[in-house]
Write a structure and sequence with these properties.
Elements (H helix, E strand, L loop, with lengths): L1 H38 L2 H20 L4 H7 L5 H34 L5 H12 L7 H6 L3 H8 L1 H15 L5 H21 L10 H71 L4 H28 L1 H9 L7 H14 L5 H7 L4 H25 L1 H26 L5 H9 L3 H13 L6 H22 L1 H11 L11 E2 L2 E2 L2
Antiparallel strand pairs: 1-2
Helix pairs in contact: 1-8, 1-10, 2-4, 2-5, 2-10, 3-4, 3-10, 4-5, 4-10, 5-9, 8-9, 10-11, 10-13, 10-14, 10-15, 11-13, 13-16, 15-16, 18-19
């Protein structure tokens, strides 16, 4: 019990401390997207969006669970375990690089824009080079979150500095391409220098097969999920041109930001989850608390983007982006809803049950093809927004169904309503204030409403999540909470 309580403290403190640290780093990425939008035209941003979505496929496909499986590997030789994982990751990256370089000309023909080939090739090489960042897995496996996050912070920090400097200098979309590559190179160099084990290729056929059995459903899930933004950009370009593709790419950055926050909390816990994967009661408590922690940030951010989308466009991006207002409003709400139960994949991965991810992704892809694609063709950006709302609902239903199978009596709707509740008073207050406003909207009005929204949301969160916040503060001070009895959680009885 003492060891489990210590593990709980280490994991929870890691989640809290690293969340605060990495929120700032990932905020740089979000700011970069909006800052660069002020220096690039919508057409230039559209080219970047196509290149990023195209080569971004590599980034997602390479995340086929190799690092997750390495964390599960309980071999007595940690150096050998890492070198085997590094070898498998390197082989997969080289294969994906070849596929990308072969596919880029065909994608250029499909989009009708050969400008994406050169930046796409640079991005593909940079993504393949991310194998040199894998030493962070070693610190992650040992729950040494501070060292892990410090190394990972190098990439977005360098990328932000280089990208903004080049954009100001007039480099256009190349500022984003070069900034991305510079971040990967700098982070890889730091990771290799900090690694406790030397890089080496150690091929083991039996180990490759073991990794394959774990990873192929994750690969299918990643491939299916990546087809959605790829097809969205393709259909958006055909229907709306590069300017419309730029709007879709900008709106997508809202969801990407909140996804990173939730992933941070979820995957910080993953090594600890693997160690208690046979304790369903402890898993449920970890799931409920970690998801509510992420929702404390994700829901207010998404709702805030929706409430202040028009101010963001008019005051920051410029009137050229006014066509993005409606899509940003919808995507803000979808980003908030998307995070309900978002961390379910970590708990199934810890138990070695990866097939539900593949099934869920294929169902989501099918819903995108039969709803979002035809709606976009018929109604443009409004159709795209409506279609993505349907896709989000399907995603929530699928994860809720699987979670109910793992955690007896779980109801995703009840879980979601509790998480969203603290944001409601602030949002309602802002909407009521706007009903009373008259005359031209000023920056002071927007700032006042933003302060009102933030203050009421914070107060509501403290009031409704007092017990959870008190427990988290206890972890920061090094005190552990009593372990939950079997069949119970922070939200009460499971059944």
């Amino acid at each position: 019990m003492a060891a489990e309580a210590s593990l709980r403290v280490r994991a929870a403190r890691g989640s809290i401390v690293n969340a605060g640290f990495m929120v700032g780093i990932h905020t740089l990425s979000l700011l970069k997207g909006f800052v660069i939008a002020a220096f690039l035209t919508r057409t230039e941003y559209g080219i970047w969006g196509i290149a990023l979505i195209t080569v971004g496929t590599l980034t997602w496909l390479k995340q086929v669970g190799i690092g997750d499986k390495y964390v599960q590997d309980q071999t007595d030789d940690p150096e050998l375990a890492y070198q085997r994982a590094f070898t498998i990751d390197m082989l997969s990256n080289v294969a994906l690089l070849v596929i990308a370089l072969v596919a880029l000309p065909g994608l250029a023909v499909a989009y009708g824009h050969w400008e994406i080939v050169a930046p796409g090739a640079v991005l593909a090489v940079a993504v393949a080079a991310q194998s040199f960042k894998t030493p962070v897995w070693i610190f992650y496996r040992d729950l040494r979150y501070g060292r892990q996050r410090a190394i990972e912070a190098v990439d977005p920090a360098v990328s932000f500095a280089v990208t903004v400097a080049l954009a100001i200098a007039g480099a256009g979309y190349w500022s984003l391409v070069i900034g991305f590559a510079a971040g990967v190179a700098a982070s890889g160099a730091v990771a290799v220098a900090a690694s406790p084990y030397p890089l080496a290729l150690r091929y083991d056929r039996a180990k490759v097969r073991e990794y394959f059995d774990f990873s192929w459903p994750i690969f299918v899930a990643g491939a299916s999920a990546l087809l959605i933004p790829q097809l969205a950009m393709l259909v958006g370009t055909w229907k709306l041109g590069l300017a419309g593709a730029g709007v879709i790419a900008l709106a997508g950055s809202v969801g990407s930001y909140t996804d990173r926050i939730d992933e941070l909390v979820t995957w910080t816990l993953y090594p600890a989850i693997c160690r208690v994967r046979d304790r369903t009661d402890v898993l449920f408590e970890a799931f409920a608390k970690s998801n509510r922690m992420a929702l404390m940030c994700g829901v207010p951010f998404g709702v805030g983007i929706s409430l202040f989308a028009a101010d963001l466009v008019h005051r920051v991006l410029g009137n050229e982006w006014r066509g993005a207002i409606g899509l940003l409003e919808v995507f803000g709400l979808l980003a908030a809803a998307h995070h309900v139960g978002f961390n379910w994949v970590a708990f199934f991965s810890a138990r070695g049950e990866t097939r539900p991810m593949a099934i869920t992704s294929l169902v989501i892809l099918a819903s995108f093809l039969v709803t979002t694609v035809p709606l976009t063709v018929a109604y443009g950006l409004r159709g795209y927004a409506a279609g993505m709302a349907i896709v989000t609902a399907v995603s929530l239903a699928m994860r809720g169904w699987y979670l109910a199978r793992l955690f007896r009596g779980f109801r995703i709707l009840n879980h979601g309503l509790r998480a969203i509740a603290p944001t409601v008073p602030g949002a309602v207050a802002v909407l009521l204030v706007r009903q009373a406003e008259s005359g031209e909207r000023t920056p002071a009005m927007a700032a006042g409403e933003l302060i009102l929204f933030a203050a009421l949301t914070l107060a509501s969160t403290i009031a409704l999540e007092r017990e959870l916040l008190r427990e988290l503060l206890g972890y920061l001070r090094g005190r552990s909470a009593p372990l939950a009895p079997a069949g119970t959680s922070i939200t009460g009885p499971v059944a």
